[in-house]
Write a structure and sequence with these properties.
Radius of gyration: 29 Å
């Protein structure tokens, strides 16, 4: 234990001696946690809509007014011909065109039906899909209002289904409640993964690894001496992130903080073991940095933070489930938003434990201590 204590003392002195490293470890993740949840928002609002009105009736004016008052659409132009509206799309000044044909009101009153045409700029598929869906919903609601005016006394038909719904765990649909826990996991992953990957290889570059190799320090002691300091730093970063989420975004975990920290403790062992494994295979810091960047980018994109794992093809789901980040993001959302207990996250905990044992065992085995 004395040997391990001396190694830990050496590592902590090296970390705090590097004044440029401390802001990267503590300040940079907190700045990113302040900025990223404000930008990483998949809600589609302020959709630019060009209206082509060939009817100019009372009903068309009411319909356009209802669309404009919804809060999702901004009317960028009101035209009588389709060509200038299409030019607005081509110039990226409009996202969707709503074309109202001639005799719209007459067809609606006399024949009890009328049609409109919607054209969406599908370069941004998400915005086009959601924007068209919002517009369809508003038009359906407008249609129901007209029918209620025409048939105020008519009871609902036998086939009418009244649907009510409620939002569990996030009643106000606050997107930050969903994103902040996941972003915090990614920031801890980036800091721990990159710094651990550069650790052993740094000793190789400056030549101190040769001095360690001729000492009686065992391989497992050396790996633990490299792992524990950054494990502590990961815990501190996570704590700062939780405090920031509490006082800036008002996010208070519904579940047990002790459970979160227990899962984090195992996750950090797995993550740092992965970083140290990269470091044992690398010959210089540049090589280690690019290898770590390659894997961490895969972890980020396939973690389920931006795209649900359930929507991925089977081969991508398999890769996503083989990354420890995916399971930690899932657990963070379950504990913070749902108040899940250990029984609910038991499988994810076992996955992380397996990752930790395999990756650290591999790193210890691969570190070749030569005199």
């Amino acid at each position: 234990m004395r040997t391990l204590r001396l190694l830990l003392e050496k590592e902590f002195r090296q970390i705090f001696r590097d004044k440029g490293l401390l802001p990267i470890i503590f300040v940079m993740p907190m700045m990113q946690l302040l900025i990223m949840p404000l930008a990483a928002n998949f809600e589609v609002k302020n959709i630019n809509l060009a209206v082509v009105d060939r009817d100019h009736s009372t009903y068309t004016q009411q319909m356009v007014a209802k669309i404009a008052s919804s809060g999702y659409f901004h009317i960028t132009g009101y035209y009588t011909d389709y060509t200038p509206a299409r030019q607005q799309i081509e110039r990226e000044k409009a996202d969707i065109i709503l074309e109202i044909p001639p005799h719209f009101e007459v067809d609606l009153v006399k024949e009890n039906k009328a049609s409109v045409y919607i054209a969406a700029d599908a370069i941004n598929g998400t915005k086009a899909g959601l924007g068209s869906a919002y517009l369809n919903t508003i038009l359906t609601d407008f249609n129901n209002e007209i029918r209620m005016k025409w048939l105020p006394e008519a009871p609902p038909g036998p086939g009418t289904i009244d649907v009510t719904f409620s939002n569990w765990f996030n009643p106000n649909m606050n997107y930050r409640l969903y994103m902040v826990p996941g972003i915090l996991v990614l920031l801890v992953t980036m800091v721990g993964g990159f710094i651990a990957a550069l650790n052993i290889v740094k000793e190789k570059e400056i030549g101190t690894i040769e001095q360690i190799n001729v000492t009686p320090v065992k391989k497992w002691q050396f790996i633990l001496g490299k792992l524990i300091p950054f494990w502590v730093i990961g815990m501190v970063d996570f704590t700062l992130g939780l405090l920031l989420a509490r006082f800036v975004y008002g996010i208070i975990p519904l579940g047990s903080l002790l459970l979160l920290y227990a899962f984090l403790a195992v996750y950090l062992v797995a993550l740092l073991g992965f970083g140290l494994l990269i470091s044992t295979y690398s010959d210089n810091q540049l090589q280690a940095m690019f290898v770590a960047f390659f894997f961490i980018m895969i972890f980020m994109l396939m973690s389920g933070l931006f795209v649900s794992v359930d929507n991925m093809p089977p081969w991508a789901k398999m890769i996503a489930n083989l990354t420890p980040v995916t399971h930690f993001i899932d657990v963070m959302r379950m504990v913070v938003l749902k108040g899940s207990r250990f029984a609910d996250i038991k499988m994810q905990f076992l996955y992380e434990l397996a990752f930790a044992l395999v990756l650290n065992g591999w790193a210890i085995w691969n570190y070749r201590k030569t005199a």
